[in-house]
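Bit of a strange request maybe. I'm writing a small parser for C-alpha cell strings and I need a real example to test against, not something I typed by hand. Could someone generate the C-alpha cells for this chain?
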Amino acid sequence: MSTSSMAIVKSRVVVGSGDMLDIAWHAWMACDGEGDDVTRLEIAQRADYSFDLSVLDGLDPGATSLFVAFDERFGNFKRMELMQAAMSRGFRLASLVSPRAVVDKSVRIGPNAFVGDGTIVSAAAVLEYNVVVHAGALVGHGANIRASSWVEGGVILAPRADIGAHCILRAGVIVARGVRIGRNCELGIPGDYRKDVAAKTVFDPSYDEPIRVYGG
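Reply from user aminoacidic:
Good idea to test on real output. This should exercise your parser:
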C-alpha cells in the first residue's frame, strides 16, 4: 500500500484547565473508533490571566486533533481566547460529543463545541463553534445555540429557541418555544423564560430585577 493511500491517524489532545478539562478528556476517551488515546495537557494562566501556551510547542498541528476545554469565565471569552490562540498556531479544532449523548444526525455542530453525557439534541438544532452543552441538557427541534455559549446541565431549550453568542444559561433554566435570548446574557435564575431577552441582560439570584449592561 502506498503512503498516499494510507489513512493518517491524528493524535487526540485536550488542552485547558479545571473541571472542564477533566470532563472533556473522559468524554473523548469514551469515544470509539477515534484513533490513538487522548492526551490531556494542562495550560497554566499567568498572574495577568494570560495563557502559558508553551505546552503547544511540542505538538504538530498537522498531526493533532485538538479540543480546547475551559470554563465560562469572563463571559466565555477566555475559552474563545484560548481557542483562537490554538487556531493561530495552525491547529484544527475538533467537536466533541459524548458517546452517552443522543444527538440527531441532522444536528450541525461547530468546531470546539462540546455535548456532554445524557444530553439530548433534537433534529435540525445548531450548536455553533465553541458552544458547551453540559450533561443532561435538552435541546429541542430547530433550536440554535450561537457561538461560545455555555449551557449547564438540566437546562431545557424548547423547539426553535434562539440563544445568542456568549450567553450563560444556568441549571434549571427553561427557554420557551421560539424565544430569543440576546447575546452576552446570563440567565442565572431557574425558571421559565417565555419572552425574548434583550442583549447584555443578567438575571442574578442576588437581585430582584434583571440587570442591563449598556455600552461596550
